[in-house]
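note to self: the first set is below, dont mix up w the second
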Amino acid sequence: MIKRQSFINHSYLNWLFKFIMAGLYGLLSAIGLNLFLNSAHSYSIGIPGIAQLLNGILIMNHVDLSIATLIILLNIPLVIFSWFIFGWSYTLFSLVAVISNVIFLHVIPEMDIITERLTNTLVGSVIIGIGIGFCFRSGFSTGGTDVIVSYIQQKFHRNIGFVNTIINAVVLVFTAVFFGVSGATYSLIGMMITSFVMDKIYIQQNDVTLVVLTKKSPAIIENLHDYTHGATLFSGKGIYTNQRTDMLVMIIQKSDIPFLKQAILLVDKDAFINVQTTEVLNGNYIRKF
C-alpha cells in the first residue's frame, strides 16, 4: 500500500512538473518574442517564427492578424498529427505549452528594452532556447514544428537543434525575400543560438556507452532487469589481482546516468563505472521519450 501511494504521489508530481515546464515555456517564449526578437525584427524558430513572418507579410498587405492568432491556426493540424503519432499525454502537455505561449503573448506587451539589434537577437534567442529545451527534457514538445522535429529525432536519431535548423531554412529564405538579407542574417544567428541552447539542455538525445567493472554482476543484473535498455556481459580477470571481474557494457541516454549509477553502487559500492560519448549507427536501440 505504501509503494502504491508513493507511485501515485510521484505520478502527480511528474504531471505537475510538466505543467509548470509548459507554462514556463509559454512565459519565456513570449518574453523572447515581445521584448527582444520583435524589437530586432528577427524571427524565432518553429511556428512562432513562421507566425512572426506571416504577421509581417500580412501587415504589409493591410491585414491585421496577431502573432498569437497565427500560432493557434498553424498549430491545429500539427496537434492532430501529434495525437496520432505520440499519443494523448505527449500532445496534452504540448498543447498546454502552445496555449500558455498564446496567453503570455497577450499579457506581455511589446516594448524596446534594448535598442541594439544584435543584442536583442542574442538575448531573445537564448531565452526561447531555454524554454524549448526544458520542454523536450520534460518529455514533450512545444507543439508546432517541434512535433515534426520529435518524430524525425526519434526515427532517425538526429539532434533536435540540427533538425530545427533545416526546417527553419525555409523561414530564412522568405525573410530574405520580403524583408531583405539583413533580417535573414539576424534571424539565422538567432536560430543557431536557440538550436545550440536546446541541444545543451535536452540531454536525453545524447547517447553514451556505460562500462561497469564489477565482481557482483549477478546482483547488478537482477537490479537492472526491468531497465529499458539491455546490456552485454563479458567475463574477465584482473591482471594484478588475478580475481574474476565481469564487465557490463550498455548503450544508454545521458539523462539515465544518475539513475544507473545509484542502482549499480547500491549493489556494489566498489564497482568501476566509465562513461564514454558514443553515436549509435545501427542496431536495435530505441530512445525513451
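second set (the one i keep forgetting abt)
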Amino acid sequence: MLDQIKIHNIKQIMLCLMARRCATKAEIVEDTGLSTSTVSSCVNSLLKLKLLVVNGMDDSSGGRRSTIYRVNSAYGCFIGLDLRPEGIQGVVTDCEAQILKRISFPLGGGTAPLHAIMELLNAEIAHNKNVLGIGVGVAGKLDYEEQIIVSAPEFGWQFVHLKEIIERQYMVFTHLDHQINAGAIYEGMMGCARGEKHYLYISEAPGGKAALVLDGRLCRGADNATGDLCGTQELGPAWPELLHFLGISQLIVGYETEEFRNKVCESTKGFGGQIHYIRHSQDTYPVSMAAVTQREWFESIYFML
C-alpha cells in the first residue's frame, strides 16, 4: 500500500512538471497539495531514476535560493497514433510532450489497418530505441479496463486485442482510448481545463462524440461510449440548460471550421460558464494520445523503485 501511495504521489508530481515545464519544490507543494516532506522524498527518487533534472536556481530576492526541477525530456519518447479510415496520423514526442517527429501512413488500396499500424511502429521503434510508450486513439467501443477494442466499425474490427498484439511484438507499454477522450484528458492535464473539476469537451472531429469530466474524472460508461452524439445537429437550444444541470463550469470546443465554431457559439447562448475554442490540427489527437499514454506509463515507475 505504501508503494502505491508513493506511486500516486510521484504521478502527481510528474504531471505537475509536465504542465508547468519547471518548478521548485515549494511550487510543486502548492500545485499538488502534497506535503513538503513527501515532495522532497519523491523528487529525490525521481532524480535518482533520472526522470527529473535540475534546471537552475530561482531568482530569490533574499535568503536561500531554491532549486528548479523539470522532467528529463531526453529520458525517452512516446508515440501517439490517431486512427482514421483515410489513414494514420502520428507523432513522436519527448517526455515533455513536445513533438520530435510527425509520422503518417495512408490507408486504402486494400491495406489492412492492423498491418499499417505494425509497419509504422516497425519503422519508428527501429529508429528510436528508447520508446517508452505507444498510444493508439481509435473511434469505437472499448473495454477500457481490459484495453480491448470491442468494435470499431470503420475498420471492421470486433474484439481486437490491439494492446496485447503491440506489447507482445515490441515489449513497449501500450495504451488505447477514444481520441476524443484523450483530447479531454490532455486539456485537463496541460491545457485550458487544468485545475477544473467539471467540464465538457466537444469536437468537430469525425465520430460524433463528446467527453464529460465530473469531479476530475472522465465519465466513460459502458464500452467507453459515454458522450456519443448523432452529429452536430445535436447542438441545440437545450445545451445551456443541460450544461447547468450537469454543473459544468467550462466548455471546451475543438473546431476545424468556422461553421462549427459559430454553430456551437449560437447553441450555447445563455451558458454562464467559460467557453474555450481551440482550433485543431492533425497533431491534436496524436499529441493527446502520446501525453495520456505517458500519464498511464507513470504507473510503471512502481517497478523501478
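remember for set 2: The chain has three domains: 2-71, 77-180+284-304, 195-279.
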